[in-house]
Amino acid sequence: MDNLLVVKDLTKNFGGLAAVSEVSFEVRRGEILGLIGPNGAGKTTLFNLISGLLASDRGSITLEGEELSKKPPYKRSAMGVGRTFQVVRPFDMTVLENVMVPIFAHYKTAKEARQKAHEILEMVKISHLAEKMPANLTLAQRKRIEVARALATKPKLLLLDEVLAGLNPSEVAENLPLIRQVRDSGVTILFIEHLMDAMMAISERVLVMDQGALIACGTPDEVTSDQCVITAYLGEEAPEC
Ligand SMILES: Nc1ncnc2c1ncn2[C@@H]1O[C@H](COP(=O)(O)OP(=O)(O)OP(=O)(O)O)[C@@H](O)[C@H]1O
Questions:
Q1: Which ligand 1 atom is at minimum distance from the Cα of 48?
Q2: Which of 46, 54, 64, 71 is the most interior residue, by most CB within 10 Å?
């Protein structure tokens, strides 16, 4: 199996709180890997560690065998780590311009950048909104802008942080296939989502975190029948996990 990202013994403490504790896993090239866990489990902290917004206390993160831990976020981005954020805050400029901003760093000429931006907007199905201002769009559409902006950095690995949160059921049904579409374009995906049904429908494997630790990893069927996972979601102590 070809591993794109390998995380080993990754640890981050905030004072006395172990937000991420000795976490180890790999992301296989080309897969859709879900990341779930109750509130405060450490999921976003893990994304911040992988993308370089936080420094780890211990452990390693390698992308295609190259250590990322000491590299600043912009270097990780150039190496192929892209991400979206839970809170979507597009710039106060058109949808197309929002995608052009990150793209400029990755393409030589304005013409090339503009062409690529249009291709990305097509892929996430908002090319018809290219000249609109994000403030006038729905949350579902703004979430697509966020994905488009992340794709503009040419990621090999895309970290998606709750791209379905806050959407109504029909918007979820519309936006969910986007994740598979992006993967099918050659991008490996690690994504955080609280919507369990959607997550299980689209993930090939799922990681489960609780209280900073990785408590399960497997296919959707394996993790949903795992007693440690059930216990974590019920908020009970499970000393054997
Ligand atoms: N910068 C910080 N300083 C101190 N504590 C923090 C910081 N960031 C996160 N935490 C704490 O670390 C723990 C993990 O938080 P994190 O946001 O990673 O969880 P999460 O699984 O993403 O939760 P949610 O699903 O609610 O977004 C929480 O207890 C949180 O309060």
A1: 18
A2: 46
